[in-house]
Fold each of these.
Amino acid sequence: MSKKHPIISVIGSSGAGTSTVKHTFDQIFRREGVKAVSIEGDAFHRFNRKDMKTELDRRYAAGDFTFSHFSYEANELKQLENVFRQYGETGTGRTRHYVHDNDEAELYGVPPGEFTEWAPFEDGSDLLFYEGLHGAVVNDEVNLPQHADLKIGVVPVINLEWIQKIHRDKEKRGYTTEAVTDVILRRMHAYVHCIIPQFTQTDINFQRVPVVDTSNPLVARWIPTPDESLVVIRFKNPRGIDFSYLVSMIQGSWMSRANSIVIPGGKLDLAMQLILTPMIERLVLESKRA
Ligand SMILES: Nc1ncnc2c1ncn2[C@@H]1O[C@H](COP(=O)(O)OP(=O)(O)OP(=O)(O)O)[C@@H](O)[C@H]1O
Ligand SMILES: O=C(CO)[C@H](O)[C@H](O)COP(=O)(O)O
């Protein structure tokens, strides 16, 4: 936690929708005049695409079938923790980009599967925004949530998460369904051990639930739309959350537990604005007073 230089950490598996959620945050930052600097979790992968393949082959030959981008060891989590710590203390730090596809290659001038050079954050930011796989990991080496002031989980139910990943990886990154299915299978061990434990560390989880049949996610022809889904929003600590205000403002919503509200999928953006804007305002106000 850093009152002076706050950090927001948005955590989700690959294809969960963290980049989509970042868009909503960007709108709030713009409207509220908040200057944020951002980190993508993929910037902290340990290997470029070619070296990752070599490392995977080496581990396979040695009988390790559980290694993947979800594994702690495939990522520079200590470096990430150092960036969180440094930003919290001084408001400075650095990041880079992992380039996934040709569009990003054109944007960053680096081929797909490579990293850009490290570059310092712009000076004078109000907060740091992280979005990625590992922003709330606690293990023997790191404790990331202790540095973050607001932790958000983006966790569609698993069939939907797979559909979102398969469609995004096919359309934007040029992979086949079979290749994405292999990746999902290979990542399952680390999904259970490295990804999901984080969602008990998060302050708020947004869980999209389809209300159409997704029994076979591998053959779904499109991603269930917002109108074909509900979102469960769960607050770790419901104290101070004005549920009656939220339920009255978000048409069609209801409380399913004392700390959870269910909203129609199409109201996700509105719900995020209503819930997150005052939280972000408070973080920035307190940072200016610290
Ligand atoms: N609320 C939503 N409603 C409908 N589609 C969504 C929603 N959230 C995400 N998607 C779709 O799911 C796919 C994956 O989303 P996104 O790129 O945001 O995932 P991600 O978590 O950032 O993935 P990665 O970390 O691997 O880059 C995209 O095609 C996106 O349009
Ligand atoms: O989205 C991901 C993790 O969040 C990617 O799977 C990871 O960054 C590796 O990318 P690629 O398979 O394109 O080299």
Note: The chain has eight helices and ten strands.
Amino acid sequence: MNNGEGWSSGGRRGPRGRSNSKETWQIVNRPKSESPVTVDRSLDESSGNRSSRGSRGRGRCRTVQVYVEKSSQVSNVGKAAQEEVKSQEDGLGSTKQPDEGAAFKCSGDNSDLLQPSASPVSRECEGRMSFGLANRMEDVSLCGQVSMSSTSDKKVEDRDSAHKSGDVGNAWNESNTRVFDICLEKKVFCLKSSILELNREKRRATKGYPGIVIRPGMVLLKNYLSINDQVMIVNKCRELGLGEGGFYQPGYGDGALLHLKMMCLGRNWDPQTSRYGDTRPHDGSVPPKIPFEFNQFVQKAIQDSQSLVATSSKKTKGEDEIPCMSPDICIANFYTSTGRLGLHKDKDESANSIQKGLPVVSFSIGDSAEFVYGDQRDYDKAEMEVLESGDVLLFGGKSRNIFHGVRSILKDTAPKVLVQETNLRPGRLNLTFRQY
Ligand SMILES: O=C(O)CCC(=O)C(=O)O
Ligand SMILES: [Fe+2]
């Protein structure tokens, strides 16, 4: 049923600007009792491939945890790349957002329409499985202070309140393409992090966290990227993001803006045409190459997901559910605290890639996000998973064509130590890797 709002013409991206979205969402959060089961580091280090019962899941859902040895994980790739990258760019660019109530045209896969709120749905729980993944936090010193730029914060506030009051334009034009800095430049004042908070982060980073088979072809590796790796990724993305083909404010063909900043690596994805290309049409820039270390993380995440799937079902080979993939595209999104992304399918990769179910591999860094997904473009039927900093999500095989999106960014949830080390702006960095 059409509730009066349409969808964008972008193939990959879907709906934007659902009015009063916060109030009308009906997705059920996982009850507290079903939060991921953590494992002791001692277990993790001694047991190699042991499995035990966990309590994650819903209702009748039984989960099993499998522990992997710390040495088998990707570790500290590119530690040297943690140097601070200096830039004189202000980096905010024009961040005008479309009016929340704006209607958008629809076409192709994005033509389904929003349904009015219905009763909450529970997620399918069969086949879920946990996979213990120890994490690493060597060499990152914990300090109780986080610094941010007050100047930049003020600009972000201004933009946000303009957005809320709906008095900003929504047209995409050349001025929207100014480079965007994902990190704050000046350290002007300090926010104290409580010792409790820092200890919580430290515990989280040093304990194993589960990997979960959410549904066939969809795997979530919780807390998979160490803080060191996250720092490296942020620094690298910042460096690339300030150069040719770096972060900018994208817009659709109809002029509406996406609620995020974007940078493409490997190949350019153009939201105006929903196509991949070698250069970025609005400025002719060539996308930076995907850093080698990023691809190593992706390969490792695919392998670990395949092992997880194989362990969870004797009948299935891991590769059948999550096929191997060599990424030649990475789309980096930066969401400020008001950022979001409507339900959409990733469908602009080659027919061969999609047909084979080659997975999309997604890294989350910074503030947590409410990630929604489902078989239909229907928010009321969608399920939700909070993606936290360091989480890696894969959807391939039978889940390659799911609708998915980001409902909201949860403020002040980024690990303090990450913010302190990188000066990452409030918000979330997301990288999705694909093979064309
Ligand atoms: O930010 C996310 O988690 C999802 C991003 C996404 O779906 C995309 O870039 O196509
Ligand atoms: Fe996507």
Note: The longest strand covers residues 403-410.
